[in-house]
Each structure stands twice: as structure tokens, then as C-alpha cells.
Design a protein that fits this description.
Strands 1, 2, 3, 4, 5, 6, 7, 8, 9, 10, 11, 12 and 13 form a 13-stranded mixed beta sheet that branches. The chain has 2 domains: 2-111, Aminopeptidase (3-Layer(aba) Sandwich), CATH 3.40.630.30; 141-283, Aminopeptidase. It is 34% helix and 31% strand. 44% of the residues are buried. It is an alpha+beta fold. Bound molecules: coenzyme A.
């Protein structure tokens, strides 16, 4: 088995997509849900984007020339993040994941903080704890938004974000997690349905929504974060299932918003952190954290 850096090529990004699909399908054997075409497109675009922005943070494992695993990581200012890693089911449990993680952690040397959104796979939780990350159990909210519960919401002057807001978004992130998302906003703006921005005398925040999924939310206070989440959930099209993930107990404001709007809460996965507490008026995205 050899490890080499991932490249932004058709073959490598397709290998990421295929390994990812096989590894995650095996995690939920009874499920008939398959990634949508848009999710596949995003998956490949993100792999190419990170291979370009962080060539030393993105690795492919090959057995006899055939890709069997990968890990995608990035350094954003003082924060190292693992965007995704997976190994083909038939090769799991043999140390491939550990070798890939070691390479990506090398890339993160010098970063004071680290963040990973962790799947339900116990192998993943074990790997990250062994690497020194604190595992914060997370909750997921899902279901249909109760429209009648939206009626008493106060007006929040939200508008659609554009590339003109990038400095504002980076400032909010630096305040919350000491690191901006920087170049990742370009990809999120291209692939996610909408960016919502609120900038008032009492607080500032932003949120990406894609269909029913709240992808990333950051605000200057919990109060503003709760109002923004409510606003984003109100925009989920009727009939589409809403989904908010990676909520730790420190983001109880999000649980309260979800319960008020009729969503169901359940536990799922972890937020693995190093050198930091969960940023509170914040919901990480699985994609860019
Ligand atoms: C998570 C993943 C990338 C790890 O890769 P891997 O090659 O299986 O990892 P490793 O073999 O290096 O490590 C797995 C560890 O879990 C242990 N393990 C194996 N099967 C296990 C199980 N069923 N339950 C708990 N631990 C298990 C192994 O013993 C090993 O620990 P050790 O090295 O301390 O002995 C891979 O299993 C995977 O693709 N999972 C599905 C996709 C996923 O969840 N990705 C992570 C997203 S955060």
C-alpha cells in the first residue's frame, strides 16, 4: 500500500466519490438512500478544491495502484480541520485510516486548534480520540417545519449574502473560532442554495442553507444565532425535510429553536475538537466545518 497526495484530476476526485459512497453505505446497511447528483458533484468539487488549496493535507491510499482510502484536511489560519476521510469497507480496520490521519495531522502542525465532525462509525471515534481530540457528543434535528409555530417570530432583517460579504463572514469566524473560512466560501457560494446574512446594531451573523439542510451558521451572540436559525428554517421549502446537525449541548439555543418548530431531536456522532471548546453561537458544516 502506498500513500500519495491527492490531485485535482477527474480520476482522483472520482475515486474520492466512489470510496466515500461505499464506506458510508456500509455504515447504514438497510438504508436505500443514495447521494443525489448535486451531492456527488459537491463531493468531487470539494475534493478538487482542497487538493488545490491544501495539497499536503489531502492524501490517497492505493493498493496495487487502486485507490482504497483517502483523507481531506485543510489549514485555515490557526485551525486545522479534517473535511472527510474514508476507507473501502473491505480494507477497514487494518490501519489504513490511521496512516492517512497521520499524514493529515502532519499538515496541521503549528495549528493551535483542530475540528472534525465525526460520523457514527466507532472506528472513526476511536481514531480521533487516540489522536488527542475531545469527543463532544452531538445531536441532530430533523423533520417538517411547523409553519404555524413560525407566525409569532419577530422580524429579522435578513438578506441574501454575496461575495461582497466575505470580509464580514471572515470577521465573525475569527471572533468565534479564531480562524476564517477564507477560500472555502467561494465553493459554498457556488454549491449551496443560499447564504443568509444579518448585520444589525444588536448583532451580526450568517448561515448557509441548501434545500432542507442548514449547512453552517455563525453569529455574534446566541440570541442572534437562534433568530437566524429560525429564519433559515422558515425558508426550507414546504414538504422538504429540515435537517440541522452537529449540535453539542453548548448549542442548546439550536435545540430549543428546533423543538419550537416541531423538529425531532436525536443523538448522532461527535464534534471532535482540539485546543478549543465548541464555538457556541455556531453550527459547523460537515463539509467545511
Ligand atoms: C473511519 C475510517 C476512515 C477509519 O479507517 P480504518 O482503516 O478502518 O481505520 P484503522 O484501521 O486505522 O483504525 C480503526 C480502529 O478501530 C478499531 N476497530 C475496528 N473495528 C471496530 C469496531 N467495529 N468498533 C470499534 N473499533 C473498531 C481498530 O482496531 C482500530 O483501532 P486500533 O488501531 O487502536 O487497533 C473507516 O473505518 C471508514 O471509512 N469508516 C466509514 C466512513 C467514516 O465513518 N468516515 C469517517 C468520517 S468522520
Amino acid at each position: 500500500m502506498i500513500l500519495r497526495q491527492l490531485r485535482d484530476t477527474e480520476a482522483d476526485t472520482e475515486a474520492v466519490r466512489e470510496i466515500s459512497r461505499a464506506a458510508f453505505s456500509a455504515l447504514t446497511p438497510g438504508s436505500t438512500r443514495r447521494p443525489t447528483e448535486a451531492e456527488d458533484v459537491f463531493q468531487r468539487a470539494r475534493a478538487g478544491h482542497l487538493a488545490t488549496s491544501d495539497p499536503q493535507g489531502c492524501w490517497l491510499a492505493l493498493q496495487d495502484g487502486v485507490p482504497i482510502g483517502f483523507a481531506l484536511s485543510a489549514r485555515r489560519e490557526s485551525l486545522w480541520l479534517l473535511a472527510l476521510t474514508a476507507v473501502l469497507p473491505e480494507y477497514q480496520g487494518n490501519g489504513v485510516g490511521r496512516l492517512l490521519l497521520e499524514r493529515t495531522l502532519e499538515h496541521g502542525r503549528g495549528c493551535l486548534r483542530g475540528m472534525i465532525t465525526v460520523s457514527v462509525d466507532p472506528r472513526a471515534a476511536r481514531r480521533y480520540r487516540k489522536a488527542g481530540f475531545t469527543l463532544h457528543p452531538t445531536m441532530k434535528l430533523s423533520g417538517q417545519v411547523d409553519r404555524s409555530a413560525l407566525l409569532d417570530a419577530g422580524e429579522l432583517p435578513v438578506h441574501r449574502g454575496t461575495t461582497g460579504h466575505l470580509h464580514l463572514l471572515d470577521s465573525i469566524d475569527r471572533r468565534l473560532r479564531d480562524a476564517a473560512h477564507g477560500v472555502d466560501h467561494g465553493l459554498m457560494l457556488r454549491h449551496y442554495e443560499e447564504l443568509l446574512v444579518v448585520d444589525t446594531m444588536t448583532g451580526t451573523g450568517y448561515c448557509y442553507r441548501d434545500g432542507g439542510t442548514i449547512k453552517l451558521l455563525a453569529a455574534t451572540s446566541r440570541h442572534m444565532a437562534a433568530r437566524l436559525l429560525r429564519e433559515a428554517l422558515a425558508r426550507v421549502p414546504e414538504g422538504t425535510e429540515a435537517k440541522v446537525e452537529w449540535i453539542t449541548a453548548e448549542q442548546e439555543w439550536a435545540v430549543d429553536v428546533g423543538l419550537d418548530l416541531g423538529l425531532t431531536v436525536e443523538n448522532r456522532g461527535y464534534l471532535a475538537l482540539r485546543g478549543m471548546r465548541p464555538p457556541a453561537p455556531y453550527l459547523p458544516s460537515g463539509g467545511f466545518l
